[in-house]
Amino acid sequence: MHLTLPDWLDDDLRHLAEQEGRSHHAILLYGQGGIGKRALGSALARSLLCESVDPERRHQGGCGECPACHWFDQGNHPDFRKVVPEAVAAAEGQELSDDPSQADESAGAETSARGKRTPSREIRVDQVRALQSFVSVATHRSRFRTILVYPLETLNDVAANALLKMLEEPPARTVFILVADHLGRIPATIVSRCRKTFIATPPAAVATAWLVEQQVVDAAAMLAMAGGAPLAALAFSRDDDGVVAHGRLLAFLARPDSEAALATAEALGRAPPGPSVRWLQQWLADCIAQRLTGRIRYHPTQSAAIAGLAGGARLSSMMDLGERVNDVRRSVDHPLNPRLLLESLLSAYADAMSVSTQAPFDEHRPTAVR
Ligand SMILES: [Zn+2]
Question: Which of 64, 129, 241, 299 has the most CB atoms within 10 Å of its CB?
């Protein structure tokens, strides 16, 4: 597998690849989720393994013609390991269904052969320990050994300790490429052992043009909804069920009432509630931003509806609900009952936004004459 690296990452790749592993044995790429950091990490690994004599070609993510590049693209370079949670490996296997060799690369054949249990969302300690034997023998080829790990936030505590030990006593000619969205969720001991490299979110015009190239309809709206992260926008645009669910939720949010809250929760509660809660969170963030600053971020095409709703509701009610949704989002992975959770949140939203039942003035709005 070799993904074409989105062009906004070209300079980052060049800068990292030119160091040829000299600057540090552990490179931590961090920045907003959904902007291409994993593809960048993969391209960097490929460039460190590439055996072209031409440094220019190596630094562009590998020449694509040498044996090393071919092995890497087929997912079986002997000096490369990718460590990701099983759930991520499974999702990538689906996305890359034309290239099944990648599907179970990192989860390990042993675990994937165990049958139908739910794929782990964590990087487990045995995945990290398996690296010990990988790094304890000489490299197969003349270049580097590279280990790509993501998302770093999913290391469980024991696995994080095992990785820390390796970072503290770095094996020879080995480069760790670690990828994270949230530095705050990674043990400081690990962060301190890495060379941190911030990867910036591309400008909206660049990201929108790229989405248009990928044949995404409504590219600008999709990008806004994804908080400016183009790969997240692309993934969402290809998720037909998600697009339908999102449309259904927005229709309710734009014209809320308590009966519609129940019907919407019923419809959306058949799927895991994570996306719905995130969309509600973004919508509330826009309502609150509209009220406080007059500017919104996620729903530019719904600005009239948001202005109307936000102007009529109490700011304190919106903020209270916003906080509650933030709390729910932190623990949304294991809700007892998605429908009940959404019923409760959407009913609270309908109450908070209902103009007719609110007092005609707002405690946070300056009052003119008393
Ligand atoms: Zn090559």
Answer: 299
